């Protein structure tokens, strides 16, 4: 099967031409099919489709074929069910975050797309799978005309900033956000106790949602507690643990409680967390979640089309990883996230400024830095051992050998890690198009004040947290 999948990607241009010819024939048969009755054609067409596409693409009969927009690499073979890849967890050798023995289907898809007419994966977001169509024929939808509908994104709505963070980013200030780890506790004081290192040195705190696929207090609950403490929260939502019904309900509940900044994530691999037997839901992916949240905000309706009595006010963010292959696909994926609604992105840890500079050059060439605010991820590493662990065990984290060697040769590795973080933040601040930094200092939060102060990233500005109360709920 893997051999056929590789063949299909290598011959994506040929298969695209064959599919276009087939689609033309199917459309020509539309009057006859309607005369016979579409339901009567369902079973024989599905059987034929299963046989042909099962052989060529390892097709899972999802009922909404995306081969034409995924480089002829079936996205349903992605273990995280990502329909808008490649995700940020691709390993350095191009293999899958979840299954290191398999090349990422979206890396394959990227290469396949280069052989197709468009020459790249499209920027338009792929919609999520409709699970009620599983097993049904996509070809029949072509005959019926269901593939003709344009997937036009709604026009960007003119609206007031949803949050203090959005207002700050719109002002052009160099922004500082940081990661906040929810406790394993039901006591709100355990949340408040963790806030002290951030007061007076960050603009907002990202509340992780089951980071690393480990269970903690919910991002929604912690975000509300931060808001009550006068801190601007950025609520992360992972598609890993909830389906579209639960997520949309959480978005409404969060907005009703005053949480306006949302970062949409696909989610880490369940097998790496503390509940490896849990199910990866993956009903949406980061891009379709962004599109869903934007639809709720700008069109006041659910993904289903049902109307909302009051639309949530949201400032929408996403993650990005300029340091994972395929590097030339990363800007295309950023464009797709922007098309889906991303207004700001926070990147994976940056330890390789040259690679970030190359990525930002491509971003500027595409004009994307004018459409989205980009915050580069930085963080202190306490030892060479931790650096090695991070780059070998956390997919998508790239740490050059020079950084590991510097930590290894230091008399005080913890201080050296702090110094490296400061230097990185200073260099990143000078890259055109970078709008801020996102500090990730898990278990080293006490270093955040000195990193912010000594790097000078705030430029003498008073940050949001500790300076003013965020928007009232
Ligand atoms: S996208 Fe769906 S229909 Fe197309 S090959 Fe994959 S599983 Fe089959």
List key phrases describing it:
alpha/beta; TIM Barrel; 2 domains; 8-stranded parallel β-barrel; binds iron/sulfur cluster
Major pleated sheet: 8 strands, parallel, barrel
User: What general form does the structure show?
Assistant: globular
Number of domains: 2
Which whole number gives the mean pLDDT? 94
Which ligands does the model contain, each kind named once?
Answer: iron/sulfur cluster
CATH C-level class of the largest domain is Alpha Beta
Spell out the helices and strands N to C. Answer: HHHHHHHEHEHEHEHEHEHEHHHEH
Low-confidence stretches: 468-473
Strands side by side in the biggest sheet: 1-2-3-4-5-6-7-8
CATH topology of the largest domain: TIM Barrel
- Terminal Cα span: 53 Å
Count of separate DSSP helical elements: 17
DSSP strand count: 8
Tell me the β content.
Answer: 5-15%
User: What Rg do the Cα atoms give?
Assistant: 23 Å
Would you identify the CATH architecture of the largest domain?
Alpha-Beta Barrel
Please identify the structural class as seen in this structure: alpha/beta
Work out the helicity level: 25-40%
In brief, what are we looking at here?
The protein has 473 residues and is of the alpha/beta class.
Description:
With 473 residues, the protein is an alpha/beta fold. It has 2 domains: 143 residues, no CATH class; 292 residues, TIM Barrel (Alpha-Beta Barrel). β1, α8 and β2 form a beta-alpha-beta unit. The N and C termini lie far apart (53 Å). The C terminus is likely disordered. Bound molecules: iron/sulfur cluster. The site of iron/sulfur cluster has 13 residues, from α4.
